[in-house]
Amino acid sequence: MNTLDIRDVSVIYPASQGGEAVTALSEINLTIEQGDLVVALGASGCGKTTLLSLIAGFIAPTKGYLTLGDSSIKGYPRIACGLDLGDEVIGPSADRGVVFQKHALLPWLDVIENTEFGLKLQGVGKQERRKKAAEYLKLVGLEDFHHHRVYQLSGGMQQRVGIARALTNNPEMLLLDEPLGALDALTRESLQELLLDVWQETNKMMFFITHSVDEALLLATRLIVMSPRPGRITHQFDLNFNKEFLACRDARKVKSSQEFISTREKILAIIHGDEADH
Amino acid sequence: MNTKSTTAMPDEKLKKAPPEASEANKEFTPLLQKLVTYSKLKISKPSIKIGEFYGAPGAGDSRIISVVSTLMFIAIWAFVTEMGFIDALFLPSPVDVLQKFLDIASNGFAGATLIEHLYASLTRIFGAFFFACLIGIPLGILIGCSYILRGIFDPLIEFYRPLPPLAYLPLIIIWLGIDESSKLTLIFLAMLAPIILSARAGVTSVRIEQIQVAYSMGASRWQVITQVISKGALPDILTGMRIAIGFGWTTLVAAEMVAAQQGIGFMVLNASEFLRTDVVIAGIIVIGVIAYCFDLFMRYLERKLVPWKGHN
C-alpha cells in the first residue's frame, strides 16, 4: 500500500518583469493514504491547483519533498536527457491519473480511442485495451458512444470520457482539478455519485479540488481548507457524509441533516473570513 | 410590409402575410403584390437559414454569387475589348486568349507545348513542396518542442524568411549552377519558411492540459511529441502548406527566369519579351486556375483530416 507524503513543501515562483516573487504554497504538510478522498477547498489563488500540479509531478517544489511510496516526486520525467533516472525520482507518470476542469481529450481520436489512449501509450495490445476501455465507458454510462467524435459530445459527456480515460489507466491515485465545475447541477450530482461509487469500489486515493462547499462536504473523507497569500492549509476536517450518502443514496437527505448544515456554516465562515481579509 | 422578418422560405411567409400589409396594398394586382413581397423578403437582411445562427459573420452560401461575379468580370472584359476601347496589344479579348490557349495547347509556344511547360513547372513546384514538407514539418515541430533547436534555427529562419527570393537567386546560381537543382532549391527555400513557422505555431496551439494528461498516462516525451503535439499541430500545418504552395507559385517565375527551356513561368516571360499579351494572359490564367484547384484540394483535405478544427 502506497502513501503520498507531502512534507514542508513550498512553491515560490521567481520574480519576473519587475514583479515580486510569489509564494504560491507555503509549508504544506499532507498525507494521503489508500482509500482517502481528500478534497481541497478555498478561494481563488489559494494554491489548490499548484498543489495538484505538485502531486501530479508537473511542477517541482522549491522547498520540501513529496514522496509516493519509495519514489520522490520531483517534477521531471523519469527519462531525462536520455538517462533513466530510475524509480526513485519521478515526474508525471501513470500511477497518478489527472482529470481537468475542461476536458483535455484529443479531438482527432473518437471516444473509445481517447479512453484507451493511456494503455496504448504503454504498449498494451489493441484487443485488451479496447476491452478495458469499453468496461469503463460502460461504468460512466457511455457504452453507446464508442465511436462518437469527442468534440460533438456535451460537456458532461466529455467529462465522463475524461474520467473513464483516467480510470482505464488504473492509477493508484486520481487527481481531479474541479472536474465537475463546468457542468449543470443534475449532471454534476450524477457524476458525484459516480465518483463515489468508483472510490468505494476501487479504494483509490483521490485528491479533488472544488469551489463548491456542498460538493466538498458530500465527497470528502478529509476536507482541507486552503487560504491565499501565501497559499497554505488552514483547516482540516475528517468527514463522514460520503458514507452516509453511499448508504442512503439520497443527496438531499444528507445535505439537509443538522450536522451537514452546521459544518457547511463553519466552513463558509472560514472562507468568507479569508475574503474579508483581502 | 413586414420587412424585418426573416425566413428561408418566402412561400411560407407569403401565406402568413400580416393583415395590415394586404390592406395597404389592395390596389396592387395579386401578382404584383406577390412580386413586391417576394423581393422585399429577398433583400431583407440578415436572412437566417434553417440550422444557422443569427449574427454569425459571413454566414451563407456564396458559390452562386462567385460564379455570377466571375462571369460578369469576363463579360466586362469581353465588352471593352470587342468594342475596341482597349488596344489588343494591352488587353486582347477573352475569345482571342481562348484561341491562343488552344493554339499553345496543340502547337506549343517557345519550343514546347502547354502540357510540357506545365509538366516542367508542376514538377518543380511539387518536387520542392514535397521536400519542404518533408523537412519543414518535423523541423518546425522539433523547434517548437525544444529551446535548443529553437535557439539554433530561429535566427537563421528569421533572417532569410523576409528576403525576396530574387535577392538570393544569384547566389544559388553561383553555388548550384543553372540547371534544375537551383530552380528547385529556390522554390524550396521560399516554401520552407512558412511551413516551419506554421508547424512551430501549431505546437504552441496544443493545450498544456492535453500534454499533461498524456504524461500522466505514462507517455514518454517522444510519445507526447509524436502522438499529441504533432497531431494537435496538424490544423496549423495544413494552413502553412496552403500558404507555402502560394509562395511556390510566386517564386516559380523568378526560378524560371534563368536558363529555363520549359515551364509555364518561362513561357509567360518569353511571351512578354515578344509582346505576346495573349500568351501572357493565357499563361496567367492557367497558373491561377491550377493554383486555385490545388487550394480547393487542400481545403478538402483539411475537412477530411482535421474535422475538429475550430472545435478544440
Automatic annotation (TrEMBL), chain A:
GO molecular function, one term: ATP binding
Lineage: superkingdom: Bacteria
InterPro entries in alphabetical order: AAA+_ATPase (IPR003593), ABC_transporter-like_ATP-bd (IPR003439), ABC_transporter-like_CS (IPR017871), ABC_transporter_ATP-bind (IPR050166), P-loop_NTPase (IPR027417)
Domain ABC transporter: 6-253
Pfam family, one: ABC_tran
CDD domains found in the cross-reference section: ABC_NrtD_SsuB_transporters
Keywords: ATP-binding, Cell inner membrane, Cell membrane, Membrane, Nucleotide-binding, Translocase, Transport
Family according to the record: Belongs to the ABC transporter superfamily.
Name of the protein: Taurine transport system ATP-binding protein
Biological source species: Marinomonas pollencensis
TrEMBL record, chain B:
Entry's localization field: Cell membrane
GO term, biological process aspect, one: alkanesulfonate transmembrane transport
Transmembrane segments: 64-89, 125-147, 159-178, 184-203, 240-259, 279-301
Keyword annotations: Cell membrane, Membrane, Transmembrane, Transmembrane helix, Transport
Annotated PROSITE patterns: ABC_TM1
Start and end residues of each ABC transmembrane type-1 domain: 118-298
InterPro entries, sorted: MetI-like, MetI-like_sf
Membrane topology reported for the UniProt record: Multi-pass membrane protein
Biased composition (Basic and acidic residues): 10-24
GO cellular component, one term: plasma membrane
UniProt region (Disordered), positions on chain: 1-24
Family as reported in the entry's similarity comment: Belongs to the binding-protein-dependent transport system permease family.
Protein name: Taurine transport system permease protein
Higher taxonomy: Bacteria, Pseudomonadati, Pseudomonadota, Gammaproteobacteria, Oceanospirillales
